[in-house]
Amino acid sequence: MVLAADVTSGGSMLLPRGTVLSAAHIDSLARRDVLEIAVLARVERSAAEIEAMREAQERRVQQLFRRAGPDATMQALQRAVLDYRLEKLE
Amino acid sequence: MNGITLQTVAADLDRLPALPEVVQGLMDYLQRPEVDVAQVAHKIARDPALAARLLRVANSSFYGLQGQVATIHDALVVLGLRAVCTLVTGAALASHLQTLAAGRDQRAFWSHSAGTALCARALARERGANAENAFTAGLLHDIGRLILAARHPEAHHRVEAHRALRDCYPIEAEREVLGFDHAQIGSALAARWKFPAEITAAIAWHHRPADQPDGSFADLIHVADVMAHALDFPGGAEDLVPRLSSVAWNRLGLSWKEFERLLGEVDTQRGDAELALE
Questions:
Q1: CB distance A64–B230 less than 8 Å?
Q2: Domain count, chain B
Q3: Full domain range(s) for residue B102
């Protein structure tokens, strides 16, 4: 589990957002009477949702590069940006 | 008739409030080959607002050290002397410039500036360049645009209207409407405020890096600017990724895979980009 938000107590930072929680972390938080924490949850998406997100990213990249023209460097850049955005969805 | 010239815009810069002394001092200090922790801590401590801002930003995930930094001394030890100077000067410069354009919606401007600063720092680390100057240069690369909007709003509106009508790059709209561009205005301001040469060159040439010699910061800030737009700093329907100079790209010597990795690195820091500049 990964913390989705900083855990603080009495104005002090106990654990920063992004911490991968171990059993020791959880024991430690319990000893400090921390009753609630926010953790990142994996969202299961349907194939249709993933496809819709891919299409949205493709449209956005196309929009950002709408004035790029046929320049080879810009085309390579556009591919890299789209590859990055699509990989992020996986 | 556009009403203003680069000369009148440059002359008006003399009427802007001077850069705070502590900022100017820290910027100068950062250019020295060796810097002293006690001296820097003393300079920062003279300005409590600056010290508070340092601690707030140092503890945000913008710097990846949430909660570890409690004092100026901690910040200097944990972040490193030069990083602290960069953080403080960047935050103070942003604050000063925000004041100059008070009353205008600056969110998109600072979102893009912070994003470019993050990209510039990531690129500089990758290429072994000065990451502190890269960060500051990224933060300030478009200050000419802010000056135009704040000091010459009527000209700025005409540029915006032209850009919207033609759906062209903002710099093309500036050149077509005004006959000059924000890089020239920013360069004039950087010279008046005596920014370090590397940063001044980046502000002046980030849209024309090929006109600068290899190794210039203009290459780095040019690519950082492109990266920031590609990551939707600031986003919006009208945004465009600027034309990437093949000369600058080849001189930086990055592969596209490395570029994609850097996009991911900066993407994870985006949540706090605006926080750092509030």
A1: yes
A2: 1
A3: 6-275
